[in-house]
Amino acid sequence: MGRTDRASRVIAAPPATVYGALLDRESLEAWLPPDGMRGRVERWDPRPGGGFRMVLTYLDPAGSPGKTSDETDVVDVRFAALVPPERVVQRAVFEADDASYAGTMTMTWQLAAVGEGTEVTVTATDVPPGIDQAAHQAGIASSLANLASYVEAAD
């Protein structure tokens, strides 16, 4: 079994609003890319067994070489489970020639109502060894901060 990375955050929005942002193409493009990146969804099929393909582009590739090319990470994601408004389970595969990025990483987005908001916990299991743990956890935390800003502004 591979490595597990995890991060969580309380977001001032109800679980249904947060869940909706996990399954809306334009929303995902806006909040999922961590700081220093932008994202573009090339394929979108938001149903169990469906998924999406996202191209993440580094705004400054000099300090962060990409997995797919010098400036990009391309990831194919399949929706393994959709349980509204509690959980989204994704299986992610990076396009990369480097075998240290090979394999399928599972990303579980767990939503729990807390007070007037939602605690979102992201658990990444079987993280490929080529992905730096500290950078990955920082990236997940950044995406969660972006998600909070996105849904709290809309709510």
TrEMBL record:
Gene3D superfamilies in UniProt: 3.30.530.20
Family label: Belongs to the AHA1 family.
Protein name: Uncharacterized conserved protein YndB, AHSA1/START domain
The Activator of Hsp90 ATPase homologue 1/2-like C-terminal domain, residue ranges: 12-152
